[in-house]
Amino acid sequence: MSDLASVFLDARGEQLPAAGRAALAGVLDAAVAAAREVWPGVAVDSAAWVRALAVISPHPLVPDQPLGAILVADHYVAFACAAGDPTAIAACDAILVREAGFAAEGTRMHPSVRDEAIQIIREQLFVARPDKPPAIGGYSGRGPLRAWLRVSISRELVRIAKAQQKSAPLEDKLIADPVFIEDPVLEELKLKYREQLAAAFRAALAQLPARERTLLRYQVIDGLTIDDIGVIFKVHRATAARWIAKIRDDLVERTRTSLAQALGVDTEEAASIVRLVQSQLDVSVIKHLDTK
């Protein structure tokens, strides 16, 4: 008889007669074989997985149907994700991205919002934190994994949409604060080119990878500190501070470049407005993206 039956029963604190244990062993062995056939490149400790199955399997125990309606192959790969198996994480991430596309289909959300939601859910699902394990470990196998992931990403898309309704979008938040400028000429240019400046800044933000937009949202919208961000990404606070500083510098440079292209640099006025961008964004972005 398979040792997996003993592992299963010990985890539940139950006993079975010999015939029942044999039936249970057969089902568990078949479940492991079926899951490995679906996910041949995923490495899972069979005993650990069976213990997890024992916790979520139906009560009372039916020896020849101990797992009830649990989708063993889906639960297997999710369990491997929670354990940190890179092949499983890559497979689940691919499902997540595909389901995010379905969830966002037909909406008016900018693709950057979808990508931002994906990055946030990735962190929640696949990254362990000091106070909690990866959230994908909560998948029970009582419905398709793809549907469970779609619900997760859909909820995050809705959350971001509601947050944007309640507060200024990330782009507006970063450029909304007025900056005192003593030079009346530059102040006039700021007012004259406000729309172009905002458009250039939004274009610069749109070019940022989803991960960097997530970092911005964590700090600017969610109010997380450098230390908080370091914990989430499991890096030293100095590393998180360097990430934020680089994003800040990239935003300023990309905005200057975009605005210069839009206005042209062959006139004194255009050159002045580009200099204004440097002062405006350095103050505004540095204020929000503080690395202290």
Descriptive labels:
14 helices, 292 residues, 3 domains, mainly alpha
Tell me what the structure shows.
This protein is mostly helical. The protein folds into three domains: 3-68; 86-165, no CATH class; 168-288, no CATH class. It has 14 helices and no strands. The N and C termini lie far apart (61 Å). Residues 176-181 have low confidence and may be disordered.
Q: How helix-rich are the residues, as a percent range?
A: over 70%
SSE order, as H and E? HHHHHHHHHHHHHH
Q: Specify the number of helices.
A: 14
- Decide which structural class fits the backbone: mainly alpha
Arithmetic mean of pLDDT: 80
- Structural domains: how many: 3
What separation lies between the terminal Cα atoms? 61 Å
Radius of gyration: 26 Å
Poorly predicted ranges = 176-181
| Percent of residues in β-strands | under 5%
**Shape descriptor:** elongated
List how many beta strands DSSP finds: 0
Q: Give a short account of the largest sheet.
A: none
Summarize the structure.
70% of the residues lie in helices and 0% in strands.
Topology:
Layout: H1 3-12, H2 18-38, H3 46-56, H4 72-82, H5 86-104, H6 111-126, H7 145-166, H8 170-175, H9 184-192, H10 194-206, H11 210-220, H12 226-233, H13 237-263, H14 268-288
